[in-house]
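About this split. The held-out portion is used to measure sequence recovery: a designer receives only the structure tokens and must propose an amino acid at every position. Recovery is the fraction of positions where the proposal matches the reference. Here is one held-out target exactly as it appears in the evaluation file.
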């Protein structure tokens, strides 16, 4: 009877405490022991870094500075190819319309400065160069007219530049300062302009040996100099006469 008491007491304790499978003398296990639970793994969202933070090197969660935001915007901006500029009649002043001259005051050009050198021109190919110092395309073409004169001038060819400036003093000053040493004329009364029906500057007119017009070129070409445009025709005509 005394031996059965411990067993009865153990059964009652097991039923009262609700511990299933309790064995007397077995060590108790604490359900809060760390070894009995798996350590929770960090979620993917917690371990990942936003793309903007990766690009800028900015720690996640910190506000982005204005400088970093501007740099990121520039880096992500698509490249836009610039269109190549094209030269055409809309954006290149090939020629300049002639302006009506004001009545001259004071000293006027001498007759020799106003008239073409007809005697000197006889038997030669002649290039008439109608220009003015106020004409931008004319000024751009002066160095090439000078080269043409240096290359072809001689017994069979000459260049005559005819100025349509308003003032003779302006014309003489420009010719002197730019070393325009070939034959120069000043069209004081527009008579040469009307004679050759010139309506825009610059205008280049090639005359045959008898004074008849062969061809004319109006305006400057941004892709080809006047030497390249007219030179081959002058060369061909000079070679044909030899």
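Reference sequence for scoring:
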């Amino acid at each position: 009877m005394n031996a059965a008491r411990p067993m009865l007491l153990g059964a009652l304790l097991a039923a009262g405490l609700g511990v299933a499978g309790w064995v007397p003398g077995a060590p108790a296990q604490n359900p809060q022991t760390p070894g009995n639970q798996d350590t929770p793994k960090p979620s993917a969202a917690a371990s990942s870094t936003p793309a903007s933070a990766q690009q800028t090197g900015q720690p996640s969660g910190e506000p982005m500075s204005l400088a970093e935001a501007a740099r990121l915007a520039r880096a992500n901006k698509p490249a836009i190819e610039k269109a190549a500029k094209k030269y055409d009649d809309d954006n290149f002043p090939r020629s300049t319309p002639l302006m009506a001259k004001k009545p001259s005051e004071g000293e006027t050009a001498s007759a020799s400065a106003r008239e073409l050198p007809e005697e000197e021109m006889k038997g030669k190919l002649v290039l008439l160069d109608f220009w003015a110092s106020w004409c931008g395309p004319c000024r751009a073409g002066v160095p090439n007219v000078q080269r043409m004169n240096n290359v072809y001038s001689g017994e069979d060819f000459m260049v005559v530049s005819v100025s349509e400036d308003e003032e003779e003093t302006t014309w003489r000053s420009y010719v002197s300062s730019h070393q325009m040493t070939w034959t120069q004329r000043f069209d004081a009364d527009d008579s040469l302009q009307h004679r050759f029906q010139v309506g825009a500057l610059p205008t280049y007119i090639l005359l045959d040996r008898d004074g008849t017009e062969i061809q004319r070129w109006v305006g400057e070409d941004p892709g080809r100099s006047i030497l390249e445009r007219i030179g081959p025709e002058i060369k061909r005509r000079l070679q044909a006469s030899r």
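Annotator remark: The beta strands are 96-97, 125-131, 157-163, 183-186, 200-201, 203-207, 213-218.
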